[in-house]
Amino acid sequence: MSERDPNAPRPDAVPGRPDRHAEPVPPPGTPRAGAIPRLETVRVTAPDLARRAALETSRRRLLGAAAGFAGLFTALIAKLTDATVINPVKPPPLPRAAAAVRSPGLADRPRSMMVDRNGEILAVSLPTAAVYADPREMMDPAGAVRQLQTVLPWLDGPALLAEFTTPGREFVYIAREVGPEQELRINDLGIPGVNFLPAEARHYPLGRTACQVLGAVDIDGHGIAGLEKSQNRRLREDPNPLRLSLDVRVQAVLRDEMARTRDDFQAIGAAGIIMNVLTGEVLAMASLPDYDANKYAYASPAARFNRAVTGVYEPGSAFKLQTAGMALDSGLVHVWDRFNTTHPIYIGRFAITDFDPVHRWLYLPEVIAYSSNIGAARIALILGKDRQRAWLKKLGFFDRCPIELPEAAMPLLHSDAGWGKATVMTVAFGNGIAITPLHLLAGTVPELNGGVLFAPTLLYQDPAIPRPGSAVMNPDTSDTIRRLMRDVVLYGTGIFGRVPGYFVGGKTGTAQVVSQHGGYRHHTNRAGFIGAFPINAPRYALYIMVDSPKANALSQGYSTGGEISAPAVARTIARIAPMLGLLPVTDPAEKKAIAESVALPLEPTPPPGVIALGPGHPFPTGAADGPAAARRGRGTQTLPLPPTRRYADSHDLSPGR
Asked: pLDDT tens for residues 619-637?
């Protein structure tokens, strides 16, 4: 058997497949058994060395760059962590002016709404924005001004540029109120340093309605007049709407009739108030001229002036209701008493006269119905200074009227020492004392509601909660005064105050206008009329005063309260009574019953056995100065006028209507 070549393939080997019986082939480089190691020489050229050096340099540089970036990112992460987590960066404080706009009262809680008694919105704050600039951040102040004027063309360019370029300026207001569209357009300009602050604008949806009552706010949203001022804290802290006693329907009617009367008689102004006599709530208060409440800054001083609570005027003959109430409540005077009006009462070189003298002794109802100055002066002499002052003080005529309006004025009156007999007589018919229209109406309310004095209010009162008041007179006195007021409308100077279907009572009041140099202006009056309805069970009282009307054919040539203001009151009652739920009386039987319940004869008969005041008996027992006055001729006085220029240096005392 011959020896097989180890390198020859086996007979059973499959072509293309490894021979599983062959010896394994060692990996390359493995020395074979018995082999002798050999030395190899590796030749490295200069280009290889240069290439290796360049690669090493690049590697070192990359490592250095990576280390640098790692350090930068580590520092950045540390800074961000410190700025946002450990020690957050706070924005720099806003300038003082900007901080004021961003105060919590404005930005965090809008100023509360004011609504009328029925929920009608009278005042509301709307969101807006204030635009300001930090001149330090501006690169081109002149260009910024030009760009801003494209959105706000009313800007004063030179003045704004001067503010932008003033050294050290950090804050400049550009506009205090801009709308959303203007804010977006300004923001799109992309002017460096121009920013916005949240703000609000006070809006009065009904314009002129009750403008002097509502008042106004300043540019920073703080109340500066009217209810906005007196209720400022309430409006800023309480988010609930402030509900007022006003009724915008009644308010609109009152202003409309006042404006009509002012225009018809070319008067310089007017004032009007409507009040609930059972609560003291003011349902309407208007003063003319007036203004759009949204444009307070542009209103004239005359338009801002609220004649109803700030103007003080001699009330004229409407004040005779106080004289009658005082007399009846004292028990010294009764409706069947008569007073001497046969001739004037002389005071030095002046005389107290009547507008339409009848030259006879008048019963008390006639004194009021015919508005006799002489009769009122005679009654006041019976009562005297002390009773008169005590009565007027008790009714609130010596103090500021307590209402939620900071503009409410103090009355003007003589001091105790200067309150002589002449003052007693002139005050009896509404001269020698100056009060606001609100004083006059509020002081008349107790004579209508049974003798209760309420502090007048502009805030809504819950009808389920009785409002406290002060009893200031006997209920019987109030009942008689209502009857006297009914006689004025039926038979006296207030006949133009009648309203078909309604039982109205009232009292005219005409006072001459005091001149700037003392004395009175001739043929210039303030014409007023107080009305109440329904007079058998009064619910509402109103007063309209027209300042310096000019007589014409509509007033039959007169400028008195009976011809000027009484018709305005009648028209107002006819329009507002149905709104207030009071429908006209149409049933004849009901009309007759109501008429009898308030009837009072102009010439009442005294009860049997009672000696009434009259000829031969002008002063009752207890009169202030009866015997002395009687010695001078049944009350005729010759007394000096107190020295004062507050009301006038001389009294032209003729008007009495």
From this structure: 998 888 665 444 343 333 3
Query: Which residues fall within 8 angstroms of residue 164, CB to CB, at 6 or more apart?
Result: 133, 135, 138, 141, 144, 145, 172
What is the residue-wise DSSP string for 409-436? PPPB---STT--HHHHHHHHTT-S-BB-
CATH class of 99-243: alpha beta
pLDDT over 50 at 646, yes or no = no
**Any idea which residues carry the catalytic annotation?**
317
Q: What span, in angstroms and rounded, lies between the C-alpha atoms of 565 and 261?
A: 8
Q: For residue range 156-194, what is the model confidence (pLDDT) as tens digits?
A: 999 999 999 999 888 999 988 888 889 999 999 999 999
Give the separation between CA 407 and CA 379, rounded to whole angstroms.
35
List helix spans (H) across 532-624.
561-579, 588-597
Mean pLDDT in residue range 77-82: 81
Mode of pairing for the β-strands spanning 452-453 and 470-471:
antiparallel
Domain 251-631 sits in which CATH superfamily? DD-peptidase/beta-lactamase superfamily (3.40.710.10)
Strand pairing report for 242-243 and 114-115: parallel
CA distance 491 to 370: 8
What is the model's pTM? 0.79
Helix axes 320-330, 373-394, angle to 10 degrees: 70
Sign of the CA dihedral 365, 362, 569, 281? negative
- The answer to whether 497 and 566 are in contact (CB under 8 A) is yes
Span 358-411, pLDDT tens digits: 999 999 999 999 999 999 999 999 999 999 999 999 999 999 999 999 999 999
